[in-house]
Amino acid sequence: MTALFALATSLLWGLADFGGGLLTRRTPALTVVVVSQSIAVAVLGVVVVATGGWSEAGPQLWFAVTAGLVGPVAMLAFYKALALGPMGVVSPLGSIGVAVPVGVGLVLGERPGVLQFVGILVAVIGVCLAGGPQFRGAAVQRQAIGLTLLAAFGFGAVMALIAEASTTLTGLFLALFVQRVTNVAAGGLALYVSVRRGAPALPADGFAWRSLPALAFVGLADVAANGTYSIAAQHGPVTVAAVLASLYPVVTAVAARGVLRERLRAVQAAGAGLALVGTVLLASG
């Protein structure tokens, strides 16, 4: 079950990142974050009311609040990085954040087996190679790398926090709702400050209503990924769940290849293959 839900997480995050990166090429990143997360809040609010999730309220929700504060910073940095550099280069660097939940799992006493340990190393190396990272170039590219590393740490922290925010399915719905409400509040405040300082909140030709379905997909896929990751972490070793969930850059790179025709180099193809090998080792260990 852990492997299945963790792989679902990587698929959802990979597609959400691809959609978010595309949207920020036309719409300011803060606007993308706020609108997509607002849609997620509305849907989650209905789910919480329908399932009676309010009864699961407790001190553990502070983990969700903290994740909600860290999340917008990470998403904003990552979407800006995706808009600046090729998705196939930026996205794999974001997976470095897996070190945070893996470290938490090790501190809590988890000790992967030999096959799982080898799988972790192979998968992480594969994910990093899947983007064929390029560290040379203009200042814009260096800025994209810096933003991606900031996002990576934030994503890793969110993964560790959301796994501690609930112990039941209805509690998970409530935790995700609280996290997204905090996301919208923090992102909305940042957007307000940005606009007051003269930055545009919308493209020059106004809000693209045709983008609303894409914004909804990004918000809902992201929140669904948080949910599947929490389930994976609760039903198996966090070290395994975190590494399998971190395979999302491979999904983003493949989507970029299929839609944007970004060419995959030999090192990227080899990296994707190693990531798959690591996945098999983790699932069988």
Please give a structural write-up:
- It is globular and about 55 Å long.
- It has 285 residues and is mainly alpha-helical.
- Helix 5 (99-107) runs antiparallel to helix 10 (238-245).
- It has helices spanning 2-23, 29-51, 61-84, 87-94, 99-107, 114-130, 139-162, 169-196, 212-234, 238-245, 248-259, 266-284.
- Helix content is 76%, strand content 0%.
- It is built from twelve helices and no strands.
- It has one domain.
- 55% of the residues are buried.
The gist of it:
With 285 residues, this protein is mostly helical.
What labels describe this entry?
single chain, 285 residues
Question: How many DSSP E strands?
Answer: 0
Unreliable residue runs:
135-140
Tertiary shape: globular
Q: Please outline the major beta sheet.
A: none
Strand content: under 5%
Please estimate the helix content. over 70%
N-to-C CA distance: 13 Å
H/I helix tally:
12
Secondary-structure element string = HHHHHHHHHHHH
Q: How many domains comprise the coordinates?
A: 1
Alpha-beta classification: mainly alpha
Give the secondary structure arrangement, pairings included.
Blueprint: H1 2-23, H2 29-51, H3 61-84, H4 87-94, H5 99-107, H6 114-130, H7 139-162, H8 169-196, H9 212-234, H10 238-245, H11 248-259, H12 266-284
Helix pairs in contact: 1-3, 1-9, 1-10, 1-11, 2-8, 2-9, 3-4, 3-7, 3-8, 4-6, 4-7, 4-11, 5-7, 5-10, 6-10, 6-12, 8-9, 9-10
Domain EamA: 3-130, 145-282
Pfam families: EamA
Family: Belongs to the EamA transporter family.
